Amino acid sequence: MKYETDYTMEDIMSLASKVYTAKDVSAPISSGSFHHDGMIVVPCSMKTLAGIRMGYTEDLIVRAADVTLKERRKLLLVTRETPLSDIHLENMLFLSRMGAYIFPPVPAFYTRPQTVDDIIEQSSGRILDCFGIDTNSFPRWEGIKNTKTHKNKI
Question: Start and end of every Flavoprotein domain (predicted)?
Fold first, then answer.
């Protein structure tokens, strides 16, 4: 966050209703008795992905994701490493087969983004779509509008 945005930790924490440290593996979200509809890990590093796959719950993010899988709740992992090695792909496939959603934040250019914020808005909206939350904040695909213009390009 400190390398990629102008946000401070205080800025982010002020948006949350609860805050836990990564080392607090006894936080309520680390238990299956904690009720929630699912978990989104953004960004999900390849280290975190591997930890989740192997059940190596050394921190709260991996522990909470492990519990989310064990309780058969929705888990969405926004992976962002490139290029991907065979290990990365195998970890993703394994977790996908367990029911996790793998969501690389690949921009959709059919929306004709004008700014980086437009790209972020579309990716964020699609992530939230997976949880049935419609932000109505980005254009959705509605098919090709002008078939004469695109006829020879298809």
Answer: 29-122
